[in-house]
Amino acid sequence: MARRCCLLLWLALGACAVSENWSAAQEIEPHIRVIVNLVQLNVAVTDNKGNYITGLTPRDFVITEDGIPQTIATFAEGNEPTRRLIENAGGENKPNSAPAIPASHGDDQVAPTPETLGSLVAGANVFVLFDTSNYMYRGFVFAQDAISDFVRSLESADQLAFYSYSRNLSRAATLTTDRGKVLRAVRTTVAGDDAALYNCLLLTVRDAAQYTGRKVIVVFSNGPDNSSVVPPEDVAELAQSTGIAIYMISTTQAKLEPISTAVFERMTAATGGKAYFAKTWRDERQAFASIRDDLAHLYSLSYYPQPNPNTGWRTITVKLSAERAKKFRLRTRSGYRPLPAHVSREPLAMEQNPASATSLSTR
Q1: Which helix (H) or strand (E) holds 14?
Q2: Which of 168, 175, 207, 315 has CA atoms 20 to 30 A from the CA of 90?
Q3: pLDDT tens digits, residue range 325-354?
Q4: Are residues 214 and 355 located together in one domain of the fold?
């Protein structure tokens, strides 16, 4: 009888211990926590004639995310040094009394030399993606010449990378400051077969997203995509979420495929870039000058997002506050989706400790 009582007591104590362990396990169940540290925007401001507007200040810009007003944390115009505004809001965030001045951008402007143009993209990481599919067969050599000229004109860009693609992506020259290495990679490319533009562009965006600072992808493509499994919308969304501007350089031959042309224009516009279509690859110098000019006149803005329960797509709206500026046009990316860098495995009991949270720096 005594043994039976001891056995029952032991079982009861064991059940209690299991219950306590189960409750403790529930309390320390891992969770995912995402904090967006910084959202970076590159904004182009032009008048109705396409002239760039200079001299704007942080107080001239109004940023909202899903309709929530945001406070600008850093600001820069063109290649000037970035200013922090949150720590010095009392001084640097005051409007400038000087009016905005349209930059000369007319057809009669004297073309600057490659040496002067090269200084306009200082600090940028530029990824060049070259279409080597059979769509490029007739203009292959001329396209190589055009890309080489483009690379030479970017002497003061921070770093350059050169990739080529047909059905697969070839990372011929990863991000480097060695222009000779990039030029050799351009000259050693060979023509391929089918074109998987969106597959390879997605991989290029992922590569570029690993780096900080201003990131630009310039695509040299002459035709549609006929072998990708990735939709262009996914590529555009990832580029927007990682703050990468996409520029497309092509010829009027690509316009024979209206669907591809529309995709090119939508994708570049969504990321804050542009699409250019010249008559031939020999006429692409104007496109190069336009890209360099664009990079030189971008306003770089960033903000720390206000509390936002939306973990999906967040819409960004940038406007000008001044009444006189309503006639100006703004171009930037339209939003982003917070992408966690990794999963936090911290227990819920530690949630009040900020150091235990996973963070994501949206660039």
Answers
A1: helix 2-27
A2: 315
A3: 778 999 999 899 886 644 333 333 333 333
A4: no
